[in-house]
Amino acid sequence: MKFNLRTLLSLLIGSVLFAAAAHAFFFYQSANGQFMVGPNDGTAQMLPFKQFLYSLYSEGSFFYSLQFGLGGGIFSQLAYYFATSTVFFLTFLVVYSGEILGLFADPDTVLFWGQAAVFVNAFRLAAVVFITSLLFCYMNIKAKYAFIGAVLYGGSVMYFRHAAFWEFFADAYLWLPLLVLGVEKIIREQKPWWLIAAIALSLVNNFYFAYINFLFIGLYALLRFFFPLADHESSIKQQLRMYIPSVFIGFLIGAIAFIPAVYGYVNNFRPAFTDPIQWMDWHDNVFYTSRLLILPAIFIFCLFARSLYKQKPFRFFAFMALLFVAFHYSPMIGSVFNGFSAPQYRFQYMGSFLLAAAVAFALPSLKSLAKRDFWIAFFLTGFAFALSYVLGYNTSSLFQSGQAYLLIISAVLTLVLLLFVHKHPKVWMPVLLVSLAVLQLGLANIYQKERLYENGNLSQTSAAFLQSHEYDHDAQRELFTQTVDERPLSRVEWVADFRNNTPLVQDFYGTSAYSSVLNKHLLFFYYHDLQIDMNRESVSRYSGFGDRANLHSLFQVKYKLVDQQKETPIPYGFSEVANNERYALYENENVLPFARVSSSTYSEDQLSSLSVLDREHAMLEGIIVEPGLETGEFIPQAQNRINDAKIEAVGGTYENGLLTVTEEIGGLDIYIGERDESEIDDYLSFYLRNNSETAPLFQLTVNEFKTSRKSRESIYRTDVNHITIRVAANDVLSLRVPEGSYTLNELALYTETYRHLDEAVATSEDIPVQLSSREISVDYNNDEENNVLAIPVPYEKGWEVTVNGEKADLLKVNYAFLGVPLQAGENHIVFSYWPPFFRLSTFLTATGLLLAAGWAIARKKQR
Questions:
Q1: How many other C-beta atoms lie within 10 A of the C-beta of residue 572?
Q2: Which of 488, 470, 412, 404 is nearest to 442 (CA)?
Q3: What distance in Å separates the CA atoms of residue 805 and residue 600, rounded to the nearest whole number?
Q4: The pTM is what?
């Protein structure tokens, strides 16, 4: 179908107006200081990452930052979010230009990005509706019907859920119709360029949703072999001859972002999902109450209209839509779309697209339905909606919600209008079309009000909250002015209300991160190598060093901010240097140099059977390396004192490793006896597992230390049950858990005097270091025949190192950090970072572009 300018302008204006009206509720709330951002991941990840990336990109830094957690690659660990998102990049260009022109103030704050969220979501929706309208027009649907179909897709409830809670999820709505257009272009015209572009855009923008969309488009293309929709379509052989090179070239072009992102995903760690997965689960009602997929009455009516199935396009899209409705109720399919992991329902927008296409194809034919077909569809639709409401009324209060009432009204009004359309189509068809758009607007806004703002707690995301003590208060920031240091890198341990990305929000170098993609070497460092308790068990995050002074000193933690209204343990060597009415700032007097050298290297294997305290001492005395690179054997000195202690159960019983707590709170008291003055801290290690599979999250305390453990039903549990907790040395260690049955064994108790730390501080030497966005330079004169230099920067693929201009071996030292072998004499060392496989992926992208250009030239010559 050829588009004239008037049609294009009409569709564009209609798309913009619909998108604006669809967000009317949050435009109104935005004027009152409320934001279209979820209170959990929205404020914990979406806003911090957008602010962080905006600041990085404004500075010309695109690949690495030491501020992301303990340090991390941007393409590899944030590509899942916004790092390579087209929508974010366009937003960045607009905001950056606006900042230069003085149109935007403070765009590097979360408050700005909270205010911008509804505008970004509305503009994206306008693009979704416009693109989808053009796709349907290309498939020979008249513009007015194509627009209504696009409205049903873009205005579906999942768009607003995605946009509010995980904004980058909503980008998938853009790439799905482009992929379909690419396939249809090949089938109808033997033109591969749209498919190549759509594949490349999908890969660049988000590897996860590229996977999801590719599952869909693969199934779509496969079924199109057997469901021709138009005359003179290409044969299966001709299609394959287009698909294979198109997919190949598309993958090559997208490689520059896709390969580093996939490496980041592979280099991540999440425990395998081992719970049983059901094939079917009737978890919601798609007529009235679903938060993911709503089937409009017009679609149900079309399904029951028998004569519509004579149309090949309607038959195809109705079949696929019903297939995806069935998928909606299958946790197993949810697992497939989530990479065969825990079931996640993130693909329902595909069902909305398919039903929208079916309706768009059906609408022109509704005015000519045979009387028998019309009345059968009319009564069956009314019966289906009535029966669904009656059956669901007593099962959920959601059937008494505004959304349910609106959908009842929508069903009745749609049927009434269809009755008029059947009798007087020329007069009433325009009314029906306008009504369908208005009803979709009503559903969108009432869904935002009830399901997102009220029940989804978006009411909590306000300007006041983003400036509160729970998120980012001036009283917290004002003490950071005391953290100025001449060291190359000084970290501050502080998170507001367990928000691990607080360092990004408040713009300091911290010790925590929360991201679905993290460096597995760091995660193993926390989970297994050092057993660092983070005060909260959860995957996809790390935080602090468990108040362990040795680790604070090794990894550049110079300051610790604490809320004086809460009991917070203060590690050894920290003293208060500033405070205000709410917070206190403590300074670490024992921070070790950023770059450390040693002639003593110890193997990870040598230390595997030793305590975590011995491993800390090994890092203080020397450097831990991978097997085969060690120069000596570490002599452990930490003594397990548990056999000398007296252990008594409190509020229950403890026998043969089984702790049964019968009172509200109970556990063990471990009596150590009189303590020597040199004994400063205790390290208590143990294995703990709640024996109830259905018990909720519970709190674990050991004296002043508090932490929480996930339910065994939680998909966010780490499955790491070996725990080490540091507390101040005391005559009695009191371990407490709630009522229940627990496996508690492998108890070990070690005492720390900090002699090793004091000696390391006394003998340390400052080594000149210079840091930039992706390079670290170290100058060291090795006149004492040291073997290895280590820096507290996480090891990950992408780092390279040269010594005196020559490429050197990059070492993984101290379990998860960077090191390099030293030469005798002067060593000018440069660690440099590029995204993983960046040279290869850049070459592949260039190759893909050249192949596309060459193919275009060859095809042009063949004509």
A1: 22
A2: 404
A3: 26
A4: 0.94
Arithmetic mean of pLDDT, 683-694: 95
- Find, among 668, 704, 665, 699, the residue nearest to 686 by Cα: 668
Q: H helices of 696-795, where?
A: 755-763
| Residues 321-346, mean pLDDT to the nearest whole number | 93
Q: How many CB atoms lie within 10 A of CB 109?
A: 19
The length of the chain in residues reads 863
For the stretch 696-741, pLDDT in tens is 999 999 999 999 999 998 989 999 999 999 999 999 999 999 999 9
C-alpha radius of gyration, the chain, whole number: 31
- CA–CA dist 441, 152 (Å, integer): 10
From CA 507, how far away is CA 504, in angstroms rounded?
A: 5
Per-residue pLDDT at 678: 93
Cite the DSSP H helix spans in 105-156. Answer: 110-138, 143-154
Q: How far is it, in rounded angstroms, from Cα 60 to Cα 503?
A: 20
Measured in whole angstroms, the distance separating CA 131 from the mean position of its chain's CA atoms is 26
Does residue 175 contact residue 213 with C-beta atoms inside 8 Å? yes
Identify the residue whose tokens are 């201009």.
805
Beta bridge partners of 833: 799
Check: CB of residue 666 under 8 Å from CB of residue 736.
yes
Q: Tell me phi and psi for residue 420, to 5 degrees.
A: -70, -40
Token pair 């890969």: residue: 203
Distance CA 721, CA 41 (A): 26
- CA atoms of 482 and 533, how far apart (whole Å): 28
DSSP 8-class letter at 71: -
- Per-residue b or e along 15-48, where b marks 16 or more CB atoms closer than 10 Å to that residue's CB: bbebbbbbbebbeebbeeebbbbbbbebbbbbbb
Longest dimension (CA), the chain: 98
Asked whether 757 and 735 are in contact (CB, 8 A), the reply is no
Cβ contact 89:97 at 8 Å: no
Tell me: the pLDDT tens digits for 762-798? 999 999 999 988 999 999 999 888 999 999 999 999 9
Contact 5, 12 (CB under 8 A): no
Q: What is the DSSP letter of 532?
A: B
Q: Strand, coil or helix: what is 540?
A: coil
Q: Which residues contact 676 (CB under 8 A, 6 or more apart)?
A: none
Phi first, then psi: give them for residue 796, nearest 5 degrees. Answer: -160, 155
Q: Structure tokens of 30?
A: 């935005």
Average pLDDT over residues 453-477: 95
Joined tokens for residue 183: 């396939």
CA angle 462, 464, 469 (to 5 degrees): 120
pLDDT beyond 70 at 420:
yes
Separation in Å, CA 768 to CA 65, 159, 787: 20, 52, 18
CB 517 within 8 A of CB 80: yes
- Residues sharing a CB contact under 8 Å with residue 520, sequence separation 6 or more, in sequence order: 267, 268, 269
Helix/strand/coil percent split, the chain, to 5: 50, 20, 30
Report d(CA 495, CA 510) in Å as an integer: 8
Environment class of 806 (CB within 10 Å of its CB; exposed 0-12, middle 13-18, buried 19+): exposed
Task: Judge whether 552 and 528 are in contact, CB under 8 Å.
Answer: no
Contact 611, 748 (CB under 8 A): yes
| Alpha-carbon span 161 to 159, nearest angstrom | 5
Q: What is the average pLDDT score of the chain?
A: 95
HSE (side-chain half, CA atoms, 13 Å) at 326: 7
